[in-house]
Amino acid sequence: MTVQAILLPMFVQVLLTFILLFWMTVLRLQALRRGQVRADAVALRQSNWPPRVTQISNAFHNQLELPVLFYVAMLLALDTKTLDLFILVLAWMFVISRILHAYIHVTSNQLEHRTPVFMIGAIALLLIWIIVIARVLLLAVV
Length: 142
What we know:
This protein is mainly α. The chain contains five helices and no strands.
């Protein structure tokens, strides 16, 4: 397995985060220019943005939460040489779930669809952590 193959899920997750960041920024600037919100009404992160802007913003901020644990787990697994095909499959499950979660978040935003997708990713990430921790502690890898 190449380093590129191992890092590709992380690169895709980073790309998703930047896409949402720039989309959110464009919508925020448009809302300010159109007078939908005043700058002083949102300068301290108040939740006064129009609903669509808030929806995209929430999708972006969500990519800064659980994915942090993903990046750390993958880099730890890579560094300790505990990363294998099974962890790579789980990594792709996590990233695909994040893409689907973001898609649902920015479209219908229905919790009954978003929550199960979120849980699939969270469970995949938890399994990655359990496997890496077990391998590091039980196999004394480091």
